[in-house]
Amino acid sequence: MSAQLPGAQPAPTALSDDDPREIGGYRLHARLGAGGMGVVYLAYTPGGRPIALKAVRAEFAADPEFRERFAQEVASARRIHGLFTAQVVDHGVDARTPWLATAYVPGPTLQQVVQRHGPLPVRTVLLLVAGIAEALQGIHGVGVVHRDLKPANVLIAADGPRVIDFGIARAADAAALTGTGLRIGTAAFMAPEQALGLPATAATDVFALGALAVYVSGGAPPFGSGPESAALYRVVHEAPDLTPVPAALRDLLGRCLAKRPEDRPTTAELIAAVHAHPAVGPRPGFADDWLPHPVSADLAGHAAGPEPAHVRPTVTAAAFASRNPHPGTGAGPGRTGDAGTPPPSGTGTPPHGGAGASPAGSPERVPGSRRAPRRGGRLLVTVLVALLALVLGGAAVYYLDPPPEDGADPAGATGAPSARPPVTVGPQPSSAAPSPSGATPYTPGYAGVELTSPDTTYEFDLKAGKVVPEETAAWYLARTDSAFVLSEESDAFIASGDELSPAECVRGIESEPVTTLNFAELADERPFCVRSADQKQIVIARLAEAADGGGAVTVVLDHHRRDG
Questions:
Q1: Which of 378, 524, 531, 549 could form a disulfide with 357 if both were Cys (CB 3.0 to 4.6 A apart)?
Q2: 360 phi and psi, to 5 degrees?
Q3: Catalytic positions, please?
């Protein structure tokens, strides 16, 4: 886990009871995120300008060595004034809870842009490289190394990128090296010398920029995903995979990813190479057309900046559940609202500038006709076979689903092969009723992917782990204003506790399948799972946030595929 604080997020969430209401004289309005080193809040200056205020975790605050390093690095960060960085505006290094305030950038992270829209075109990637390289020049010029440059630490604005969370990683070194589970940097974007514990230099950030550009242009990091240990091994010992990268970028990015720091270009050389590239032309600036149109449309929803919490209400799934005293009886797909309660209205513009909430009193918008879950027949068969199993002593239970076909299905895999062994799941055969296929192994695919659907015109592509426009994905999780909608013939199960494994998912689908997934039932990130129609893929999901009145919905997804 990175020891960095996360960057600003485009969809603030409501403060919890445990959050402070004021830090350093700044009134806090919402949470922007949380990470290994602390929590980031949306706050406002007395004149009304939004800021991102980052409060350090208590265990770091209690470490004298950390506090000293934090003060030194904040002093360095205050001297950074590049146009492509989020400026430091205030700090409280001597406060009981140290904090740092930077300018709030009203835009999504680069990671979110790629997740929503896929790889970006060559010209856009080159301009990003030049802008980020200029930001690194400003950071390195005051003796600071970023150490955790990655797509989640680059915000996208209409006039170019903004690098965030610079200069803080070094302050966390002492605590992170002794803290359990903490590491400076992110494995998929970490340079070999950093992975080996050697000193980080400006060339370390150039390597990370190369890895970031590979992800942005090809859709996957150059050394794969999966467990951190496997990614670190590939970073140190294997060549990067540049196959998905357009040919026009491979030479430049390949040089950034050289194993030896001295073989990588400097930031000045990178900027010169971008200016000389034929895809950029004589005007390498961030004009109106530097981003693809769908991304520019996304930014339009952020241009005005966030509104205070009392103007733009956003509720978590837990808060939504508290309004419905009877979980499970709320609106499902095709219904008009929670039982006995009309759907709320009047929220601000969703991040994508989409339709948002339905007018008060009007029926809830239901996605296209293919969204209606026509699953009655399958469910009836399941019930009848289950009853038959009771009569026959359980002999038919394991024949509800067909045995797996020969051969693995690699279609759902993303990233490099995982070093973790496959997890064996599925009902175990008994002596009275042997299973024709035996236990079913599932191998992890993508993991911990956080996605946000800005409104009901977007759905989650479960196979690819992306947000896509409705009517796009074959295996999807769509949503209305108050519930998720399954793709036809998919199976789902809601866990009773806080954890859910692939094995428990399979058993739950066989014994307690569900056809509706109301947000109110999924409060407090209660896990649920969805199995594909061919039963070869499973996604375990958690509802992280459901904005009031049909706004943005955020989920965290873990993908698993069957290996036989």
A1: 549
A2: -60, 130
A3: 148
CA distances from 29 to 23, 313, 320, 335 (A): 11, 10, 18, 33
The predicted model gives 367-394 an average pLDDT of: 41
Place of tokens 């009836």: 380
Q: What is the pLDDT of residue 240?
A: 95
CA distances from 258 to 80, 163, 206, 466 (A): 28, 23, 10, 30
Q: How many CA atoms, within 13 angstroms, populate the side-chain half-sphere of residue 420?
A: 15
| Residue 142, pLDDT score | 83
Cα–Cα distances (Å) from 380 to 244, 375, 395, 472, in that order, read: 45, 9, 19, 29
Task: Return the amino acid letter for 382.
Answer: T
Backbone Cα Rg of the chain: 25
Q: What is the 3-state secondary structure (H, E, C) of 112-147?
A: HHHHHHCCCCHHHHHHHHHHHHHHHHHHHCCCCCCC
Which amino acid is located at 491 in the chain?
D
One-letter amino acid of 523: A
* 411-434: average pLDDT: 35
The pair of structure tokens assigned to 311 is 């103007």
User: Would you state the structure tokens that stand for residue 298, as one six-digit string?
Assistant: 């996304």
Name the residue among 464, 463, 482 with its Cα closest to residue 522: 482
Tens digit of pLDDT for each residue in 72-105? 878 877 878 777 887 888 999 999 999 999 888 8
What is the distance, to the nearest Å, from the Cα of residue 286 to the centroid of all Cα atoms in its chain?
Answer: 26
Contact predicate 200/20, CB 8 Å: no
List of residues 6+ apart from 344 with CB closer than 8 A: 357, 548, 549
Query: For the whole prediction, is pTM greater than 0.70?
Result: no
**Cα–Cα distance list, 465 to 65, 320, 445 (Å):** 41, 25, 10
C-beta of residue 156 within 8 angstroms of C-beta of residue 86: no
